[in-house]
Give the backbone structure.
Amino acid sequence: MEPLSLLEPRESFLRVEKVRRAMSDAGFDALLACDFATIYYLAGRVFDGFALISVADDPVWFVKRPVHLGGELVCHIRKPEEIPGWLERFGVAAPSRLGLEMDLCSYSLVERLKSVFPAAECVNASGALRAARSVKTDEELAKVRLSGAKHVGVYSRIPSLYTTGMTDYELQIAIEYLSRKEGCLGQFRISGSSMELFMGNVISGESADAPSPYDFAMGGKGMDPSLPVGASGEEIRPGCTVMVDVNGNFTGYMTDMTRVYSLGTLPKLALDAHQCSIDIHREFRRLAVPGASAKALYEMAEGMARERGFEKYFMGHTQHAGFVGHGVGIEINEQPVIAPRSRDILEAGNVVALEPKFVIPGVGAVGIENTYIIGAAGAECATDAPEEIISLD
Amino acid sequence: MEPLSLLEPRESFLRVEKVRRAMSDAGFDALLACDFATIYYLAGRVFDGFALISVADDPVWFVKRPVHLGGELVCHIRKPEEIPGWLERFGVAAPSRLGLEMDLCSYSLVERLKSVFPAAECVNASGALRAARSVKTDEELAKVRLSGAKHVGVYSRIPSLYTTGMTDYELQIAIEYLSRKEGCLGQFRISGSSMELFMGNVISGESADAPSPYDFAMGGKGMDPSLPVGASGEEIRPGCTVMVDVNGNFTGYMTDMTRVYSLGTLPKLALDAHQCSIDIHREFRRLAVPGASAKALYEMAEGMARERGFEKYFMGHTQHAGFVGHGVGIEINEQPVIAPRSRDILEAGNVVALEPKFVIPGVGAVGIENTYIIGAAGAECATDAPEEIISLD
């Protein structure tokens, strides 16, 4: 038997306490979680089963798979109907208001869990979990920093991968292979079902303006209608940009990073819009302190784009994305969200990917994305690397 | 505007009719679907939104993203609350028994959709959709065959990728890169939330016996506790096997294929168990005709393993998987399921991946996996390639 939790006791306690505080704020006394990302957050590893966090008792772990995990308050079950019996045996109080991950678990599963706890009032725990996870612990931030350093290392070698006549797809898969060689885990974890992506996007020329079915800033046309995202297989042409936005998951925690490469000479419009993105980042670094409003940060970015006359290219051209930044961590779409109607207020320990981008018709996408760790002393950039457009010539 | 459906009218009609028949069998008169795989099935492309299939009227399409899709009975919406108004405008009857994808959609979404149709009785459509999709059309089978041919092409070149001293991880990412060069789309679509995987598994030696949190036949230890699946980074050692089970999604439709490679000499136990797998396949090809029971096919496989004394290695050693085969198509876990308690009966047009595998402690995994198209004239192998263990020496 291997101990179930891979977290040090202190780290485990920190995370559970954070969840308990969010539970208290939301008014429920127990949480039964099973989403893989939540389980990884709570146990430092993925297992198939449930974690029961209650305000009054120690966490109890219910494992379906794998078979080799053990420890205190760890029990192996085949189905959730076995949970109440175990709680009784452990002397853990039955939940009265039970939080379930209703934004993530299927309707069928939630209905089943509700009937496992007929005496409990079941409520949606997804908001509380998102809030708890949006403020990272030092250990989580260390993983973000490590991913960022490796991510930057991969990007620094992208120009060396380009050869004349390459398509965006060929460049994309060369970057994927380099990333994997450097230890990228590949998996791009997305909460919920608003997006699909393989490993990342390399978008060149007109493909940048292909309207995406997914909730990305810009997705690219893709190689097949079954997965309309990413490179489209077109040759990278002079006068066009290549936007690289690929997976930075090297540690279980992701950084999100975009840089722009180019062939030949770009029109002034593209260069100026790219500079606008860099300037938005500079302003963000100044303003993104604990207590700052995510809505105000969005308005700053959108306002700068409008002031310089780039509003029709901002966050897309044929189709516009409704945000300019998002929380990132175990998953790519965490809190806070930097969007027009966001009510999020930045806190120390938030990790935010800011991606003010522009689509210039006939040229491609410009603008950069960095991942920032919000701290009392200001925003720390986890993906620090040259920001200007990098020539592939 | 681009036409929403990429399917020819006849193909579109075939699929919708198949879904309507399953709906009638299950007793509901309309289906509101939004899962990306279902949308791709119905429209030949992915979009974010809803498809309404009713028994009496033509399909109606509700698109949130992308913005550029149009056509008859296509409407752009921001939220599902707009759907009833559109139905009224189109003169489409309001659903009375409405099928929703309750095994896939979140509890929150289903509750929201229920309140959009307060007069309808909402029922679970997941089973009916699984049944409809389990029998493929000729066009779908053509995509399966094409994926299979490309999949086989990649596997034929695996020995050329191996170099002395390689780790399983190095081999895995070399195979990934080769697959991507040959046009593999990467995305490994899984229905529901029982599995996570990047692109495929290369499992060597002891890693084969690492109990997996996921519902795979065998998963491998992985490189990080955040994604405990696939290669573990150990050097491939003489006397060990390397099992390669990587993504065959080249067309939106997947084939599933496993072959075994080896270094040095393998013990007789491993060779005999591998032969048992080949023999199970031979028997399957004989028995897997329309009308055959999936349960009986499982019992045949399990029985052959037991007869030869391999039961403790069958479908895992420290942990055993509960099936020996599964339907495959747009997703990796479709119907029919070849498992002890399966009630599925094979039909012409089913696509089944059969994977009788054995974990031999200290050696690794053996056994092959093929994808079969079930037809009146017998099972056609979409992944036809040498079945014996292939030496990397």
In short: The mean pLDDT of chain B is 96.
